[in-house]
């Protein structure tokens, strides 16, 4: 028989939902009319098997069922319902002489039973109690999930500034869906951390999170790394290799620094996203892949599109939902908390003592430019814990020359050899970029280093092109 469908997924029903299951039509009609008039949302079924189709773990209502029915009787039906969700209240309507069966069903976990014939008012009290109970169970579950999500996010993504709070709310909202997400933000703002949080709060969290840094894979092998290859596909392909995209099957594929992907590969990626299948190099057979895509960029992709370095059609495919992470200098409220937590963790890891630096020093944190964002802060907090001397001395060594401009003076002859070399490298690259107005190609030629190396060094040394002064 046809039956009306009701929403079994909504955690907060507008009106309480009742499923009526009875093979006797007269009872179905009278009961549903009465409950309908009483303001309930009704769904009727002539048999238990069709009723089971409407029941999901978050079904937000109550079931009223006959005991003696063809196909599946009330006891077996109750057991099946409780196997879906042991907290769904099932009220049995028993005929004369069915009471022993109803008692058995109660032992299996049914909520209540009422003897036929009954006046609707006879079941009202039990029904209302059952609905109230169900409402509480659903609300508690939603609350528990929310608390668990909040806990996961708060312990991972440190920060209570308004923009961090908004970001965490957006993550919690978007994570359980399947939409592709584009995470944008400067280097070190936590894009990968955000991508992992989305995966962990998604329904794919028991599957793989595969992170691919598009800037770190050599152009010559990028295709085989992403799509895989068959044995003998090219010289040196001695074995079949499963690519990163196939590895992410049923899980999440995180493509970091997407704008570094060569244009030809972008076209192939677009095809994979559209057709949801890959073809390994050296093969003609497509392989179905099912992944949730999260991309990250520290570059403005519309600009890359305008520069003809990024495909516009690919951008439209990946940016269904964009999460922007604010740079640290725009959420300075978070600085003391981040520093303190990173320093505490470092102290524990390195087994060193840590005491919060005195308040008068915190100004140094706020004045700093933080072009390397949270990664730079984490680094400094760890170095603070490892340095010797009192708080002022350590603070001076960390922020001494670099406060306010983010780059150390190459004449700074203190610190470890590694630190001094780092400062010199930073100075040389910044100087070259400044002289050539940020023109990376000219700088690559002058310093005789490939683009990839220059990009990596700029990232490691926290040099951003947009902070280079024009000449
Ligand atoms: N809000 C945060 N709370 C705790 N740790 C953070 C936070 N943001 C970033 N981090 C830490 O900072 C470091 C850099 O983060 P991550 O690698 O996610 O940045 P990213 O934006 O992906 O960087 P890149 O663009 O350079 O790849 C990591 O160690 C990460 O754990």
TrEMBL record:
Superkingdom field: Bacteria
Domain Sigma-54 factor interaction: 157-386
Response regulatory domain ranges (all copies): 17-131
Record key words, sorted: Activator, ATP-binding, Nucleotide-binding, Phosphoprotein, Transcription, Transcription regulation, Two-component regulatory system
4-aspartylphosphate carried by residues: 66
SMART domains in the cross-refs: AAA (SM00382), REC (SM00448)
SUPFAM superfamilies: CheY-like, Homeodomain-like, P-loop containing nucleoside triphosphate hydrolases
InterPro entries the record matches: AAA+_ATPase, AAA_lid_NorR, CheY-like_superfamily, Homeodomain-like_sf, HTH_Fis, P-loop_NTPase, Sig_transdc_resp-reg_receiver, Sigma_54_int
Protein name: C4-dicarboxylate ABC transporter
Organism, scientific name: Thalassospira xiamenensis
């Amino acid at each position: 028989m046809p039956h009306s469908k009701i929403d079994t997924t909504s955690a907060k029903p507008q009106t309480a939902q009742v499923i009526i299951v009875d093979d006797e039509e007269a009872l179905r009609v009278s009961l549903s009319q009465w409950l309908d008039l009483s303001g309930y949302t009704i769904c009727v079924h002539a048999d238990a098997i069709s009723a089971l189709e409407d029941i999901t773990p978050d079904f937000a209502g109550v079931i009223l069922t006959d005991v003696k029915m063809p196909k599946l009787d009330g006891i077996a039906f109750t057991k099946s319902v409780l196997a879906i969700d042991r907290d769904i209240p099932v009220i049995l309507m028993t005929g004369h002489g069915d009471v022993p069966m109803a008692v058995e069903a109660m032992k299996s976990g049914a909520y209540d039973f009422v003897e036929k014939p009954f006046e609707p008012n006879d079941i009202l009290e039990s029904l209302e109690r059952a609905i109230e109970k169900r409402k509480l169970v659903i609300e508690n579950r939603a609350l528990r999930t929310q608390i668990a999500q909040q806990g996961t996010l708060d312990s991972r993504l440190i920060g209570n500034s308004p923009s961090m709070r908004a970001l965490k709310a957006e993550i919690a909202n978007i994570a359980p869906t399947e939409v592709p997400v584009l995470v944008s933000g400067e280097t070190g703002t936590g894009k990968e951390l955000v991508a992992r949080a989305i995966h962990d709060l998604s329904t794919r969290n028991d599957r793989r999170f595969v992170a691919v840094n598009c800037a770190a894979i050599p152009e010559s092998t990028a295709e085989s790394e992403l799509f895989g290859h068959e044995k003998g596909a090219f010289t040196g392909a001695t074995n079949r290799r499963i690519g990163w995209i196939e590895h992410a099957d049923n899980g999440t594929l995180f493509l970091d620094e997407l704008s570094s992907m060569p244009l030809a590969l972008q076209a192939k990626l677009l095809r994979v996203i559209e057709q949801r299948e890959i073809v390994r190099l050296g093969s003609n057979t497509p392989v179905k892949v099912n992944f949730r895509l999260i991309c990250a960029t520290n570059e403005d992709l519309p600009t890359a599109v305008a520069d003809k370095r990024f495909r516009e059609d690919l951008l439209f495919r990946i940016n269904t939902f964009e999460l922007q992470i604010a740079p640290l200098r725009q959420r300075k409220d978070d600085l003391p908390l981040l520093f303190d937590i990173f320093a505490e963790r470092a102290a524990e890891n390195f087994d060193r003592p840590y005491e919060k630096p005195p308040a008068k020093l915190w100004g140094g944190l706020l004045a700093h430019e933080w072009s390397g964002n949270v990664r730079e802060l984490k680094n400094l907090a760890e170095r603070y814990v490892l340095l010797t001397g009192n708080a002022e001395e350590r603070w001076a060594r960390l922020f001494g020359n670099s406060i306010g401009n983010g780059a150390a003076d190459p004449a700074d002859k203190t610190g470890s050899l590694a630190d001094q070399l780092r400062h010199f490298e930073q100075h040389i690259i910044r100087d070259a970029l400044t002289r050539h107005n940020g023109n990376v190609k000219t700088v690559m030629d002058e310093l005789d280093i490939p683009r990839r190396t220059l990009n990596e060094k700029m990232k490691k040394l926290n040099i951003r092109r947009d902070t280079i002064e024009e000449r």
